[in-house]
Design a protein that fits this description.
Length: 98
């Protein structure tokens, strides 16, 4: 799942306030994962209300979607260079250390 991931190029010159705006850029990835997890949770709720049992395949798919997106969200928040959204730690460091 990680083999095809590529960093998103960001034009720092297009940002009005780079320190603040880079934080917003970096939070976009985890926010997208959270939104997808919420979408899968809604699909699970619809399936559960329609009378499906938890062992049914149509309820297993949303459960997997929720788990995968929450794991990806957590990984996006970790400051590990190959996995991280580099911008989350960007505003935390003084200018000299960048």
């Amino acid at each position: 799942m990680f083999g095809w991931a590529k960093p998103v190029p960001v034009n720092f010159h297009a940002l009005r306030r780079p320190k603040r705006d880079m934080l917003w850029v970096a939070l976009a990835g985890p926010a997208a994962n959270l939104a997808m997890a919420i979408g899968w949770a809604a699909a699970f709720k619809v399936g559960a209300l329609s009378g499906l049992r938890q062992s049914d395949f149509l309820l297993q798919v949303p459960i997997a979607g929720i788990e995968v997106n929450l794991v990806f969200m957590a990984l996006n928040l970790l400051p590990i260079l190959p996995l991280m959204e580099a911008g989350l730690s960007f505003p935390c460091f003084p200018i000299r250390s960048r």
